Amino acid sequence: MPHSTTSSITVHRVPVPEGSAIDFGAELRGADLENVCAADFEIIRQALYEHQVILFKNQQSLSPKAQYNLTNLFDPPATGYGHGKTLDAKRSVLHPDLKTIPHQPQVQVIGNGPVAEFEGLKDITLKHPHHKTFHKHAISEEDDRENTRFYRWHIDAALYDLEPPYVTSLMAVKVPKTQYMTLRYDDESNDKLQVPRGSTAFVSSYKMYDLLSEADKEFARTTSVQYSPHPYIWISPAKSRSNGLGMESDGLELDYSVLPPIDESKIKVLPMCWKNPVTGHLALQVHPSAVQKLIRDDGTVIDDLKEVREIVYRMQRPGIAPELVYAIDWEEGDLAIFNNHGVLHTVTGSFLPEEVRIFRQCNMAASTPVVGPDA
Ligand SMILES: [Fe+2]
């Protein structure tokens, strides 16, 4: 990193839509992301952990290598992609969504439509994830162009063997002209939200924690989550709630006997609360689709899957209220970096097969374990 004691980067809160209560998200201006000096990175890192989602505009020229280098600054010893090689598993619910850039394997291409050539990938067809492949109940065909759902609220993490990446970067390379869609929760509420087509939606897991009752905060601080081994294969036959916040419990999860070999030492038990390394705030940070058991500090184990999911759902649902969702209106050249230990995020929207959209995503499995509430 070149040495410099001053930085020209400035931090600006993102404009908040009327009626919104979001308290995170910032745009950083004046950055030269090909030449980030120590003083620049200090500002970038501070902004990331204070604002959770940071956005740089007009980064069209940033190469996949430079995107990797920038993402890697947050955790220099971490060099391998966040999901390792697990995406190769054809049965994983993640498999159709990501294609690896051959010369920069920590960077994945996601998007929609036919692409003749992109970064060494030839004649690929990208497919924007559609909720009908994951949700138990889908929006009807006739309503589908104007209406959408949160596809799957998640943390970017393998949740087996590998540690959750600190940050993920997302670069909007090609974005079809967007119109707003109506995002329907289709749950016990009548909640709806207007979102740009193909928006990535974020919520703050710090807000999610702050909204809990004192008793639930205490529960969250003293409980760990055990994730299933090979979680994305385990849930592959199961279906999601209509608001994308976890699974329906119909007993469809795969039996361990048909999962790839399980190494008990690689099963992840993570705290329910993850501490922000800069502010010290606690995030209620749980991947709702992959949870399997809750383990209390006193040794009690809650292993009834339906009950586990109900507890997590009750705690997380207030945090995805419409006024708390930051839905990015992507423009070509936008580079977002988000605190993967402090937000949940999800794809939204749907595209016609011929609508071409290209994004580059980069994250690395962290070099250290998650920091819990007692650290
Ligand atoms: Fe993601």
TrEMBL record:
Q: Does the keyword Metal-binding apply?
A: yes
Q: Please indicate which superkingdom the organism of origin belongs to.
A: Eukaryota
Q: Does the keyword Iron apply?
A: yes
Swiss-Prot/TrEMBL keywords: Dioxygenase, Iron, Metal-binding, Oxidoreductase
Q: Which Pfam families match?
A: TauD
Cofactor(s) recorded in Swiss-Prot or TrEMBL: Fe(2+)
Q: Which residues form the TauD/TfdA-like domain?
A: 23-362
Q: Which GO terms describe its molecular function?
A: dioxygenase activity; metal ion binding
Q: Which family does it belong to?
A: Belongs to the TfdA dioxygenase family.
Q: Any idea what this protein is called?
A: Clavaminate synthase-like protein
Q: What species was this sequence derived from?
A: Polyplosphaeria fusca
